[in-house]
Amino acid sequence: MVSYYCNNCKIAVEKSECPICNKRTEMKSELYWCPSCNIPLYEETCPLCHGRGAYFTSDARPVFPEERLLIEIMLDQPFAFLHDSVWNGTGNRYYVNGKRIPFSVSNLRRYDPEEIRAKLERYKPQNSYGPFNEMIGRWIQANAQHLHFITTEARQYVSGYSQRFLNTDNVASFVSFSGGKDSTVVSDLVRKALSNPSVIHIFGNTTLEFPQTYEYLERFRKENRKTPMLRAENRDQDFFDLCEVFGPPSRTLRWCCNIFKTGFIGEKIKRTFDADNKAVLTFYGIRRSESASRNTYERSSVGRKISKQLVASPIIDWLDYDIWLYLLTTGIDFNDAYRLGYTRVGCWCCPNNSRWSQFLASIYMPEQSKRFHDILYRFAVKMGKENPEEYVASGGWKARQGGAGIELSKNVAIEFKPCATDAKSFNYVLNKPITRELYELFKPFGVLKFDMGNPRLGEVYILDHKTMQPIMKLQGRLGTDELRITILSTPIAHRIKTAEIELKFKCQITKYQLCAGCHACETVCKQNAIKLIKVGETGYQYRYEIDEGKCNHCCECINHYTGGCYMRRVLLPRGKGYSENEQ
């Protein structure tokens, strides 16, 4: 049973938004176990046997025979639950016939992945789907009414939201397709609700997807030939190479998302839909029950990461239980990684993955897991950890906060020398010689004029883009590392106070010293004016270019990230012996 309560109006309602005040309501879910039919239910009274069920858990998913066999092997009881009803409930607890079994994923180190892999191969031919399919058949029949309700509501939402926006040439639409269970459901719902099999799908290939995800993607293409499946991917950079340069991503420093996902999906959207001139309606498979952060998401909103994007989330209030009820009732294909026990199928090495997911990767992806383990171990050594192996095994790398010990972190610091004679002049000693690329980063401030200054001194004037009057002057010869910036008039970057303007200068200098091709600035720019051009053989050598014809001097690229550059947050040394105020 799912119930909603509006704390503002003090009433029970049917949806997650109150129809009176339009505010978010509090959601509560309860599942029950029917001992006679041996299945979980949404209602306390079983629709099949009419018996009374007992409270089970708040959410649950079926355990497929592949994962069931793995659990049995780890318990040293192969096929002990072959004819039983096995489920995984809230808190990653395993249940057999409605009762919790003494199995925990908290102590996985005592298991040998190679030994388990060998036993899985030995017992695999004897594993059967027969009893599982019989149980799922009863479960589907007992929960049919609930599925009809949530499916009808979701389709009506898709249809209504589409009619609101897609009746104009200024809005395009697509399904964001990850290859996971949620986006698979949304894909099916959207195409059926719109009676249109040709809705464009965009798959963001991070290059770190599970092998089963790529296999499923190919099956999806063949089974849905009328559905265009576009790929957005970074073909120039290698995740493992960048881990050596930036350090591995952590929960708070997921630089990989910008480099391998967000930026390239944004670029694919712009190229596919002429998104400079159109808004794009995106159907997402986001669900609030997935995490605390996603619980704050609205069902309909403006995109947080990609400009000019309208976001619609048809299944935002669905539980895992609902997702599997839909998939197994409709019989549509899905990613086989879920059969193995994975609960999410994003990047297989994501720092947000659970230890259980890591353990599964060590069984089913031994070569990739070994390679990533070695990278983590070398990073721990570089960081000076007393026990590198423990740091890796315990997941300490997932909590890292900055770039201490990383060579590139030296470029975070900006050496500043105040001018004794002019309060509006600022002297900087850069960490790399001045090149023409430095001037690209000052285009957002105004119009560059190279012929107004003294070329012998390396002077370049910047004019206000509206009045064409000088507002600042750069002075620094090519090949040297000393740069002087003088404020001639204000406002600059929509600021009047000298201290605030000087912070904007530091933002752009930081970009110049740190730019490693993360593509974050490309995504931020709503005018599509910023491009990163690969200039070296390594995965972090890029040239920053700003198209003067597209730049409207909004300065959003300057202001968007603290300190001006996303990679500054990744590489900024933190911890004992470091102070951000000194950088």
UniProtKB/TrEMBL annotation:
One Pfam assignment: PAPS_reduct
Coiled-coil residue windows: none
Signal peptide as annotated in the record: none
Boundaries of every 4Fe-4S ferredoxin-type domain copy: 505-535
GO terms, molecular function: catalytic activity
InterPro entries reported in the protein's UniProt record: 4Fe4S_Fe-S-bd (IPR017896), PAPS_reduct_dom (IPR002500), Rossmann-like_a/b/a_fold (IPR014729), Sulfate_adenylyltrnsfr_sub2 (IPR050128)
Entry-linked Gene3D superfamilies: HUPs
Superkingdom of source: Bacteria
Protein name from the UniProt record: Phosphoadenosine phosphosulfate reductase family protein
